[in-house]
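[Meeting: bench + compute handoff]

Bench side (C.D.) handed over the final construct sequence. Compute side (W.E.) agreed to return the predicted structure before the next meeting so the bench team could plan truncations. Sequence as handed over:
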Amino acid sequence: MIDSHLLPLQRRMTMPFARALRSAGIRADQITVVGFGIGILAFLALWAGLYVLGLVLILLNRLADGLDGAVARLAGPTDRGAFLDIALDFVFYALVPLGFALSNPADNALPAAVLICSFVGTGSSFLAFSVLACERGLKADAYPSKGIYYLGGLTEGFETILFFAAFCLWPSTFPILAYVFAAGAVVTTVTRWIMGWQAFGAD
């Protein structure tokens, strides 16, 4: 919901580190893959019930997600980079609730399944809109540097990480927080359906 407002601050904070990484010859794609590897470690930590460690690894994954984009802007973005970024991000977002489900199946399996299902709604509506927007040459004014069309909503990256952090800090509240976040994701999905219906209804 507020990602576009936080984007300038994120860029200012990550740019010095991005310049250093670029000078060291590290490519954006490499950062993306390493960040995903850290995300897998976060999943394993959550599965093992090591929630504080899981939170640290989640935050490191998100740091890598910001740095790969900053390095890509310095070196020149590529289609492969945009593909890797979004494809691996979607898997990472699903791995976090899966980790909680596996750590405590009796309490967390159903809420995690509901949350992952809601992610399918937000993800599929996001990608479907982006594909058609690209075909029509549309640009997202709030995200001019992104490799694909970014469609906002009630639950975006900031809200996702906020809830992930809450899951890790108060793991016993995962079921109720997961349902609350899933409800927000449903709202996001429905609003994106409406936006798509309106934006592409002039055929």
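W.E. noted at the follow-up: The mean pLDDT is 87. C.D. will use this when planning the next construct.
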